[in-house]
Amino acid sequence: MNYKKLGNTNLEVSTICLGTMTWGEQNTQEDGFEQMDYALDQGVNFWDTAEIYSIPPKKETFGHTEVIIGNWFEKTKKREKVILASKVCGPMREYVRGGGNQFGTKNITEALEGSLKRLKTDYIDLYQLHWPERKTNFFGKLGYEHDDSNEWTQFEDILSDLKTFIDQGKIRYIGLSNETAWGTMQFIKIANENNFDHVVSIQNEYSLLCRFYDTDLAEVSHNENISLLSYSPLAAGLLSGKYQDGKVPEKSRLKATPGLMGRFNPRSLLAVANYLNIAKKYQLNPVHMALAFCDTKPFMGSTIFGATTNEQLKTIIKGLDVELSDEVLSDLDKVHREFPFPI
Fold first, then answer.
1. Most confident of the following: 45-49, 237-241, 253-257
2. Staple partner for 284: which of 137, 289, 312, 316, CB 3.0–4.6 Å?
3. Which residues are catalytic?
4. Element containing residue 161 per DSSP (H, E)
5. SS3 at position 113
6. pTM recorded for the entire structure
7. Which residues, including other chains, have CB under 8 Å from residue 72's CB and lie 6 or more apart?
8. Which residues fall within 8 angstroms of residue 163, CB to CB, at 6 or more apart?
9. Burial (Cβ within 10 Å: 0-12, 13-18, ≥19) of residue 10
10. How many CB atoms sit inside 10 A of residue 81's CB?
11. DSSP classification of residue 81
12. CA 33 to CA 39: how far, in whole Å?
């Protein structure tokens, strides 16, 4: 297993991160326990969850993933072996603390206390803002809408509350998720001006099919020492090839979330077909190729993967030693130029 320092911290995190969002919906607690046992045994010490998991989010399963992780911690007594990341959700439906904005003092405090209780731990290593409260582009949105209302929790107020939690020992470090370059730089600027703690990571989507991070946030990562935690490195399973030729496997993300939030479309399937041809040409498992591509990026802190079966988890971990040649990377770049942003 390979490890990297997370941002400017001393946390040594595995370069792949165990994603947990299907536990409690597509996966049982028994499945989750089996995955956590195996992942930790293989050296995967970095796990990511969120208060709204499991996915797709709904009132009946809110917090279920954190409960499963907490039950595992209670059973195994291995909390100290894990670097744990969780998240407070952005503006949400009414069943989450009455709905609306969630980063104000009252709601973010209740969110953190709820996560700590479900996770059965005294602290969270990395606490992330799941998505912005202000109007901006994330989750595949297109078209920026400027928001002068200021009807969202201001950066300095969020950072002040997070500092309080750090001072209390309830969280160690803070991170962003689904954030923009401007938003990230505002957090950095205001932290510098007020002696607040700096964000150390950004959890945004990144894969062969989704490289928006390259356009601006990659520069922020380099100059501000902020690690990318890439989610959906397989584009919700598209890059495995399992959805080609009209296939929709049982217990798959596509079965649970038709359309995969805009990722599943004729152009993305055509791009995937080209990437699969490269994997075949160089005798690579397409899953290993997609994950290894993410790891070539200098801004990458850890690549988050999710598995709905333990066999998928084993397949992913088996490919950690795969390195892509210059020829493979060149061919991947050619496909990217032909299909730059297919999702």
1. 45-49
2. 289
3. 53
4. helix 155-167
5. helix
6. 0.94
7. 32, 33, 36, 78
8. 196, 197
9. exposed
10. 10
11. G
12. 10
